[in-house]
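ugh ok fine here u go
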Amino acid sequence: MEKILLKPLSECSFGDCFLIKEINIKGPLRRRLLDLGFVKEAEITVLRKSPLGDPVAYRVSNTTIALRKDESSMILGEIVRGNTE
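structure:
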């Protein structure tokens, strides 16, 4: 069986579609992200990055949320559709 190497959400580029496999965040932020739809197998789309690259806006379900790099680096998964540009 082939092992899939998981990437952090923070490494995705504009327009990428990311499938969540693990969330390594604890405490109130974890609860907030789960409430917003950041659950295993959810698809995340990278919407836009700020001029300095941090934070980044993501879309999950019908919610848009901005996360800092240290937060998004603890969300692991795989890119299912890359940027078409």
